[in-house]
Specification:
With 250 residues, the chain is an alpha/beta fold. The protein is built from seven helices and six strands; from the N terminus they run ααβαβαβαβαββα. Strands 1-3-2-4-6-5 form a six-stranded mixed sheet, sandwiched between helices. α2 packs antiparallel against α3 (54-69). It is globular, with a radius of gyration of 17 Å.
């Protein structure tokens, strides 16, 4: 059995890391240890994440670890942390859309993509900073302050999903979700040197997305490796009766 060094966690794909977790080469709590270290080290400067609750993450990790060890969770991304742009609704974390008016808003329902993530045994690590209501392309218009580029603090990380891209680029999360109207996943992915995708319209449910322009918006994955983007797209895509524009069958 391959024993992976803990320092190598962020040097491999999330798909590979999930395999290591399922093979018991590494514990999910150890993955979170590094994520928390990176958050503590970087977020005060980068301002990439609006909310992050390590205690809740560790609690969920304990539950998921038992399910993974018993073979109940076998998906390609089981146990992997993912950060969400803060216009994607969650019931256990505030959904601010980077705005002051929604600073304390707690959604009464999860977005469909959030439900899909939970069903696959992934951990929502926190919510990411963004241009207010997605209206921007530099992540400088958030009510919570500008997001910084991890490669150069004097540069923009791109927007409006700049917080999601910065969180992935500096190791606060292995994967993230953003939303793209006219480049809001693709621009920050490029600016931060990672991989991002705007899926074909209708392939991913928009239910629970606080949209900028519903007829253009799509939720899309951000990550380091192409295989992780493909795996994440598989998790979040598919039919949804709650979104009339979503595809009928997967």
């Amino acid at each position: 059995m391959l024993i992976m060094e803990k320092s190598d966690i962020y040097k491999i794909s999330a798909v590979s890391l999930s395999s290591h977790i399922k093979n018991k080469d590494i514990q999910l709590s150890e993955v979170l240890d590094i994520l928390v270290q990176n958050y503590n080290r970087n977020n005060s400067e980068l301002n990439a994440m609006i909310s992050f609750n390590p205690q809740a993450c560790y609690h969920k990790a304990e539950i998921l670890q038992e399910k993974i060890d018993s073979g109940e969770l076998t998906g390609s991304l089981a146990g992997i942390p993912v950060a969400l742009k803060d216009n994607i609704c969650t019931t256990d974390e505030k959904t601010t859309c980077g705005s002051g008016i929604l600073e304390n808003y707690l959604s009464p329902f999860n977005a469909t993509v959030t439900e899909n993530i939970n069903s696959q045994g992934m951990i929502v690590a926190g919510k990411c900073n963004m241009d207010e209501f997605g209206m921007g392309s530099t992540s400088e218009t958030s009510a919570f302050g500008s997001v910084k580029n991890p490669w150069n603090l004097m540069r923009s990380p791109g927007g409006s999903s700049g917080g999601s891209a910065a969180a992935v680029a500096c190791g606060m999360s292995l994967l993230a979700l953003g939303s793209d109207t006219g480049g809001s996943v693709r621009l920050p992915s490029s600016f931060c040197g990672i991989t991002g995708l705007k899926p074909t319209y209708g392939s991913v449910s928009r239910y629970g997305l606080v949209a900028y322009a519903s007829s253009f918006d799509q939720i899309g994955p951000l990550g380091i490796y192409t295989e992780d983007i493909a795996a994440m797209l598989d998790v979040i895509s598919g039919p949804d009766k709650k979104d009339s524009t979503c595809i009928i069958s997967k």
